[in-house]
Amino acid sequence: MSAYGRDETIARALEVGAADYVVKPFSSTELVARVEVALRKRAGPDKPYRVGDLAIHHGERRVSLAGRPVQLTPTEYDLLNALAANAGRVSTLDYLLRRVWRSRRGGSPRIVRVYVKRLRDKLGDDPKNPTYVFTEPRAGYRMPRPDDG
Asked: pLDDT per residue over 40-91, tens digit each?
């Protein structure tokens, strides 16, 4: 929520990771509707995210590769889920620190890099020729959009 309603301010907030932007004053009906939409989105999609042999089953917090389960720690799963939720777009280190580690400020980008390496190892993803987690130099990481079908 903000008293700033300039287009540039709103666009910047959304670019850096805000899911929504509400300008004061606002009605309680609008606020409740926006919260309900956010909660529905947070529940995750019903269909698994699929790229090649990788499947993320959101409702069960389960990941499989070529039909075999992949054992991930809760943090590794949260990282993979955050990347998949932003599929096709770059997830900045700051975005991932906020989304996965709930770090508002001062979090170390090194922790993201360490966990991306662990995730790639478990997925058998070669950082020099990735299939699932792509490095965007000086920007962050990106996963491809899910397969259609």
From this structure: 555 555 688 999 999 999 888 999 999 999 999 999 999 999 999 999 999 9
H helix count then E strand count, the chain: 5, 7
Task: Please report, for the chain, the start and end positions of each structural domain, with discontinuous segments joined by +.
Answer: 7-42, 49-142
* CA neighbours closer than 13 Å in the CB half-sphere of residue 114: 6
Instruction: Give mean pLDDT, residues 121-131.
Output: 94
Distance CA 67, CA 108 (A): 34
Reply yes or no on domain 49-142 having CATH 3.40.30.10: no
User: Residue 115 in 3-state DSSP?
Assistant: helix
Q: To the nearest 10°, the Cα dihedral for 37, 38, 44, 47?
A: 30
Alpha carbon distance 60, 23 (integer Å): 36
